[in-house]
Amino acid sequence: MTALAPPSAAASFQFCRALVRQSASNFAMAFRLLPAPQRRAMDALYAFMRVTDDISDEPGDVSEKRARLLSWREALSAAIGGHDSHPLHPALRQTVAHYGVDPKYLFEVLDGVAADLEPVRFETFEELYPYCFRVASAVGLACLPIWGCRDPRAAAPGEAAGIAFQLTNILRDLGEDLGRGRVYLPRDEWERFRCPPVRWSARGPDFAEMLRLQIDRAKRYYAEAERLNEHLPPPGRAIFRVMFRTYRELLAEIERRDGDVFHRRVKVPRRKKAMIFASAWPVKWGWW
């Protein structure tokens, strides 16, 4: 694990580290809770996710983006087989091979990102669930072996964590997504409460009832996800603690605002995030 990487891989890891720093992600700061080799592996995984998201988010025609994602998928297949076409590929391949990351999760992420290229509608939660798995649970399940988890029993709570996080993202971004033609909340649920998307920003009693359903569902997935701690070594528990508590606090903030995610973006206060991050260090050291 501590052996020096060959020059091409070393340069690739440096590229990934630079991409992580450039992103200034709050969660990337949590990588510091991991030993150095695992931090580098998380850099590679994060870089892959970042480039994938950039293809989807950049301005341009949908057909062009879809073609780029297809090309990126083909490049991933080739890179896993040893044929690189992007600076991050050597680092990603070494990470996948060394830690036993199942490549299927990387392809699941690509499927999820592709689904966001068109206006989004889901009829039922059963339709929404696979999307949440692809864009969130698959990421977490790819992280688990890097965090030192080899217990197959971790898969179920790991999957639940991703669902909980993505359901929280969906609630936080209701207004922004609506402006982009994306409606992630299941149609059968907002129809049941007679609360179509055009009325969400008014936040009437019907919206409050629908929101209660969404928050309670997310809380059930958080409760299931908490069991992941039983299967992680201390550094893994530490980084999961930061992600879990940050997202759960985000959900709590949405609840405190009674679902007012339309006039001001919901964020975890900086002081609260600092407290969460600080609380993870004793976990990393095995004190908790």
Write a concise synopsis of the structure shown:
The protein is mainly alpha-helical. It has helices at residues 7-23, 26-29, 36-57, 62-80, 89-99, 104-115, 125-146, 155-172, 174-179, 187-192, 205-225, 234-256, 270-284; strands at 120-121, 182-183.
Fold topology:
Elements: H1 7-23, H2 26-29, H3 36-57, H4 62-80, H5 89-99, H6 104-115, E1 120-121, H7 125-146, H8 155-172, H9 174-179, E2 182-183, H10 187-192, H11 205-225, H12 234-256, H13 270-284
Parallel strand pairs: 1-2
Protein name: Squalene/phytoene synthase family protein
Keywords: Transferase
GO molecular function: geranylgeranyl diphosphate synthase activity; squalene synthase [NAD(P)H] activity
Which percent bin holds the helix content?
55-70%
Q: Give the uncertain stretches in residue-range form.
A: 1-7
Widest sheet, order of strands? 1-2
Corresponding CATH superfamily of the largest domain? Farnesyl Diphosphate Synthase
CATH architecture of the largest domain: Orthogonal Bundle
Q: Could you say which structural class the secondary elements and strand pairing correspond to?
A: mainly alpha
Organism: Limnoglobus roseus
InterPro entries: Isoprenoid_synthase_dom_sf, Squ/phyt_synthse, Squalene/phytoene_synthase_CS, Trans_IPPS_bact-type, Trans_IPPS_HH
GO molecular function, one term: squalene synthase [NAD(P)H] activity
Protein name: Squalene/phytoene synthase family protein
